[in-house]
Every structure is written in structure tokens, then in C-alpha cells.
Amino acid sequence: MQIVPYLKGSKLWPYIAGIIPKPDTTETENLVKWEEADVQALSTILMNITPNVQARLDCLSAKAVWDSLLSHYAQADPIIHNLAQICLCTKNYMKGGTETLPSHIAELQWLREMCGGLGVDISDAQFSGMIILSMSMPSWDPVIGTLGGILDPKVVISWLNMEWSQRQGLTLKKKDSNVIFQASGKSTAKCENYNRTGHPKARC
Q: Which helix (H) or strand (E) holds 30?
């Protein structure tokens, strides 16, 4: 679900996920702060779903709404879970296409977030493997070979981005050298009237 990154960025996700539980009634100050954050999280969720879906949810707390929402969609369409995983597993980076490597990785991360929002947790080790498998091109085999056994996706992403940046630099250098070569190959013929290079007689 696209709302998950926003909830995490707003620091509301811990209340929805139950990481920050509701304080005891004796902790008045903490309870007031918790209820304010929980109401904000609850309102954010409800504003992003249609009224007919809202009517079927348990709105006791943000976590209750979220759990009801996941349960509702899981029962309504269990294929969604498999579809999200399939999209993540079959996403491949295509060399020469319009998509850049950073964009490819960003979409993989988004798909992982979507799976998490649907209740399908993808571990760091699994995600690292998915990233590596998505780079199924011979030109990347030497790089992928050095990443075997690395279970931290941040490390894998860092190495791939660094290699991609270096390759982009080499590509730009080749283009620059071609421009210089083309420029050096221009006619050096001199005009018979003014003796000026690049000014042929026909232009006089």
C-alpha cells in the first residue's frame, strides 16, 4: 500500500504496527500523547479509503483499523499476496532500456513496501537475493559474483549504484571523445581569396 511510506515518514507507523502500545490509564500524560498520535494515524488511514470500506472496519484504534483492513482485503482477494510477490520476484533490470538502475532499485523497494503493507514480510536476506537475481545480464555477472553471500540489501544497493555510476562515467567519456574526434576531422581547407581555414571558396 502506498500509504505505508507516508505513515512511516510521519512517525505514525509504530502506533499502527503496535510497536508503541497504549499506555496504562495510570500514566495520564503518556496516555494523552499516545491517543493524540493514534487519532492522527487513524484519521490518515480513514481519509485514504472509501466510506463503504470504512463502514466495515473496527475503528477503535489505528491498529484495529489497519488489522481490519488487511483482514478484509486478504479475505476478499487472497491472490493479491501472491501477485505482489510475483511482481517483486520477476522485476528485472534491462540494459539499454529507458529505466535507470537507481529507478529499478527504487521500484523494487516500493514493491517490498507494498508486500509489507499486505502482510507479506520480505526479510533483508530475501530482498538481497531478489535484487541480485534482478540483475540477470552477462555484463553484470562479475559484479554479482562479488556480492554472493551478502545479506544486507543496503550493501548490495550501494555496490550496484557505485558500479552503475562508474559505468555512466565511462559512457560519457566515450561520447566526449567521439565529439572531439568528429571536431578534429572537420575540413581544414583554406579559402583561395582570404586564406582562412574552414572558409572554402564557395562561401566567398
A: helix 28-47
